[in-house]
Amino acid sequence: MTHRARYKEPDTSLGSSAGVPGRDVMPGGGAFLEFLGATLAAGAFVLFVVRPEVSEALVHSLATSTAGLVP
C-alpha cells in the first residue's frame, strides 16, 4: 500500500485536493454513477436469465476472436 506525503499547511497549492472534505470532483455524481452501474448489471443479469443464448453467443464470439490471435 502506498503512502502519500501531505503538507502540513492546508493552504498550499502543492497538495492534492482529493483528501479535503467537501471537494468532490463531481458533486452528486457518485450516486448517479452507482445507479447507472447497478442498472447495467441488473439489465445484463435479466438478459442472461431470459435469453441464455446471448451468453452462449458472447462466449463463442470471444473464443473465436482470441483463437484468431494465436499464431
What class would the helix/strand composition place it in? mainly alpha
Kindly report the average pLDDT value.
77
Main sheet specs: none
Series of H and E elements: HH
* Rg over C-alpha atoms, rounded to the nearest angstrom: 22 Å
Range of helix content: 40-55%
Number of strands: 0
Shape: flat
Please report the distance between the alpha carbons of the first and last residues.
38 Å
> Can you count the helices?
2
Strand content: under 5%
Low-confidence stretches: none
Write up this protein:
- The chain has 71 residues and is an all-alpha fold.
- The protein is 54% helix and 0% strand.
- It is built from 2 helices and no strands.
- The chain has helices at residues 29-50, 52-67.
- Helix 1 crosses helix 2 (52-67).
- The model has no long low-confidence stretch (mean pLDDT 77).
Features:
71 residues; single chain; mainly alpha; 2 helices; flat
Short description:
The protein is an all-alpha fold and 71 residues long. Helix content is 54%, strand content 0%.
